[in-house]
Amino acid sequence: MNVVRAEWIKARTLPSTPWLLMGLLALTVGIGALAAGTLHAGECADPANCGEDFAKVSLSGLWLSQALAAVLGVLALGNEYGTRMITVTVAAVPGRMRILAGKAGVVLALVLLPAVPGVLVVSALARPIYAHNGFALPGAITGASLRAAGGTVLYLGLVALLALGVTALVRDTAGSLSVVLVLLYATPALALVVSHPTWHDRLQEFSPLTAGMAIQATTNLDALPIGPWRGLGVLAAWTAAALIAGAVSFVIRDA
Amino acid sequence: MSLRHLLRAEWTKLRSVNRWVLALAAAAVFTVAFSILASSGGSTDRQPNVAVGPGGKPVADDFHFVHRTLTGDGSIVVRVADQQNSHPQAMAGVMIKNGVTRGSSYVSIAVTPGGSVRMMADFRDVEKRAGTAPRWLRLTRTGAHIATYDSVDGSSWREIGEVDLAALPATAEIGMYVSSPGEIRLERSAGTTSVGERLTTGRATFAEVRVQGSAGSSWTSDDLIQPGLERKGRPGPSGTTEAAGTFILTGTGDIGLNEPPDDTVQIGLFGTLAGLLVLVPLAVVFVTSEYRRGMIRTTFAAAPARTPVLVAKAVVMGGVTFVIGLAAALVSFFVTQPILRAHGFGPPMFPAPSLAEPRVLRAVIGAAVFLTLLSLLGVGAGAVTRRGAPAIAAVITLTLVPMFVGSVVPAAAARTLMLVTPAGGFAMQRAKPATDWLVEPWAMIGPWAGLAVLGTYAAVALLAGGWLMRRRDV
Amino acid sequence: MSTSIEVRDLRKRYGTTTAVDGLSFTVAPGEVTGFVGPNGAGKSTTMRVILGLDAPDTGHAHVGGRPYRAMRRPLAVVGALLDAGAVHPGRRAKDHLLWLAQSNGIPARRVGEVLEEVGLASVARRRAGGFSLGMRQRLGIAAALLGDPPVLMFDEPVNGLDPEGIVWIRGLLRGLAAEGRAVLVSSHLMGELEGTADHLVVVGRGRLLVDTTVGDLLAAASGGRVEVRTTRRTEAMTVLANAGGTVALTDTDALTVTELAAEDVAAALTAAGVPFSQLSPHRATLEEAYMELTRESVEFGAMEVLP
Question: Helix A143-170 to helix A62-82 angle, to the nearest 10 degrees?
Answer without folding.
Answer: 30
